[in-house]
Amino acid sequence: MTKFPYLRQDFLASIVVFLVAVPLCIGVAVASGVPAELGLITGIVGGLVTGLMRGSSLQVSGPAAGMTVLVFEAVSEFGVAALGVIVLMAGLLQLAMGFLGIGRWFRAISVSVVEGMLCGIGLVIIAGQIYAAAGLKAPESGIGKIAGLPGAFADALGSTEALTSLAIGAGAIAVIVFWKKLPKAVQSVPGALAAVVLATVATLVFSLPVATVEVEGLLGVIQPPGTDAFAELAGPAIWGTIIAFALIASAESLFSAAAVDRLHDGPRTQYNKEMIAQGAGNTVCGLLGALPMTAVIVRSSANVAAGAKTKASRVLHGVWLLLFAAAMPWALALIPLPALAGILVHAGWKLIPFAKIVPLWREHRGEALILVVTAVSIVAVNMFEGVLIGLALSVVKTAWEASHIKLEVIDKGAGPIQAYLSGNATFLRLPKILDSLESLPQDRPVELNLTGLHHLDHACRTALENWAARHSATGTEPVKVTEPEESPESEKVTAA
């Protein structure tokens, strides 16, 4: 037992992750326009292949909702038969990026962007799974999911089956929440696992009319890419899709890794190795004709929350997916979907950083704004573009804060006016600099001293030279510009 000190924790966590993964695998596959079993195959590969590799020890991989639109469009354009070769080539591209060391650049992700990502994903999960708990079809967009909730509740009130289904989902959430108040001995069984077992028993005993998991055989849907699929590579159109698959899958996986690292105190993610692990998994998925794989924050957060300590939990979750989906589909058919939806609603709630938003707003409003904008963008658009918006806003904020500039003007009433610029002169503060300089008297000579600048970008240098030329054009003597010490010229005169 000393060789596997965390076997018990990892075993129990793997069951929870397996239960969370089942509806995700099936739901993502159906939304992508492919057989549900292909989603399960991707989940199995995520556990047994990527799960065994180094990178992020507690991150769990499988089919992701963020890829559904891309996959649906690819299948519509090239067909299901070509999906395998697209995923295969995307996996090989990820392997190349990992070996080239590109993954480590994702370590620079802003904390506020990561928190915003967690918040946005949590909101989308909660909204989407409420529909699943009621047995209703959810709108495709994040905004549609949230805006349609009042109508969904109204529809559910008029249906006994929908109310029963909602009750099962609500009951599962209640079990998870109150499970932590029970004695420690009882808590040794994860609350999510207890919720599913109790919901399954209640459904069977009372013959409740709720939807359950439906799975058929896996072997019939495995379609390795054939010669016709590889022939598609001769056309340029498919390469755009392949590159999009590789970049978006990599970004989602490494953004997720940064988020997962904030959920636990264990080993940190090795980004390049995680990129390689994701590439290896997608290569295998491509050879099997399955869906593309990314790290999935829902499964990963459930894994951490359930007490996982090592990568054994994610490998075992792949084993359970293979065992139950391939050998015992009847066991999956007993699990009510609203109970699984309840687990996901609770997981989504845990991702929203309620306790951090208000203090962050009081102390760092710029960071709080980035968090909120990132979350709203993910809900309004999608995860990948929402994170890009958050990152762009973070870069702009950093650049703005780094552009501290001070202009000191000394006018003794006679002789030249002395203007001293210090700090960082970038294009972001250019309007302020020019406004101050252009307010100087036009009929007086000016000495502009730049030796106090730490940085002077091209835009500012050009603007200063143009201002000096305009000022000198009025007939006064040329503006005398003293450059920073690192400049090869200690003094420079710009004349009209």
UniProtKB/TrEMBL annotation:
Topology in the lipid bilayer: Multi-pass membrane protein
One Pfam family recorded for the sequence: Sulfate_transp
Entry keyword set: Membrane, Transmembrane, Transmembrane helix
Superkingdom classification of source: Bacteria
Chain segments carrying region Disordered: 474-496
All copies of domain SLC26A/SulP transporter, residue ranges: 7-374
Protein name: SulP family inorganic anion transporter
Organism: Streptomyces tuirus
